[in-house]
Amino acid sequence: MGRAALIVVDVQRDFCEGGALAAADTLSLLPPLQQCIVAARSAGAVIVYTQDWHPGNHGSFQTNGGPWPVHCVSGTPGAEFMPPLKPHSGDVIVHKGETVDGSGYSGFDHTGLANRLKSLQVDCVGVSGIATEYCVRATALDAIQAGLETVVLTDLIRAVNPKEAPAVLQELQRAGAQDSTAAEWLASLVRV
């Protein structure tokens, strides 16, 4: 039996209220997500944080002909993790979207995350974070593709457009993901 990992997708200042590309209702996400991280870590799960880490000339930016406002430029305050989230020294941090082209939505896209999780003997992931219909979706789909048991923590994700979330969750279920609350997922870690 392998280990579990909690993947915290892009909970960064620019994706939270007041940021350049804020999802809906993100401030309500932070306290329960922080509690889940602490509980998962104490249950022996690997904690993975993904971070959009774009160059200033990223192709997705409106200034460069893309669909999005400038966001999460590497090394800027907008790219920082939103407090109270603060990785520990043993946590895995994955920077994504570092090249000029390509969306960089998935935490697995050109990051080496699949191999890193394999080396840590992870076979199950809980996916949380921002944004449901973009980076959470892409990360969950790639986790499934990597052969990982994939659980979407439905109470710990936030969408840019909440009306799109049910369709995204249905798509992920069809692809092989499971839905769970954080409490249910954490309870399954303790039982293992």
Give descriptors for this structure:
alpha/beta, 21% strand, Rossmann fold, 192 residues
Descriptive account of the structure:
This protein is an alpha/beta fold. It has one domain (3-191): Isochorismatase-like (Rossmann fold), CATH 3.40.50.850. It has helices spanning 30-42, 113-119, 132-145, 165-175, 182-191, and strands at 3-9, 46-52, 92-96, 122-130, 149-158, 178-180. Strands 3-2-1-4-5-6 form a six-stranded parallel β-sheet, with helices on both faces. Helix 1 (30-42) runs parallel beside helix 5 (182-191) and helix 3 (132-145) packs parallel to helix 4 (165-175). It is globular and about 50 Å long. The chain starts with a strand and ends with a helix.
Helix content: 25-40%
- Number of DSSP E strands: 6
Number of helices, counting only DSSP H or I runs of 4 residues or more: 5
Largest sheet: 6 strands, parallel
Per DSSP, what share of the residues sits in E-state strands of 2 or more residues? 15-25%
Q: Give start-end ranges of low-pLDDT stretches.
A: none
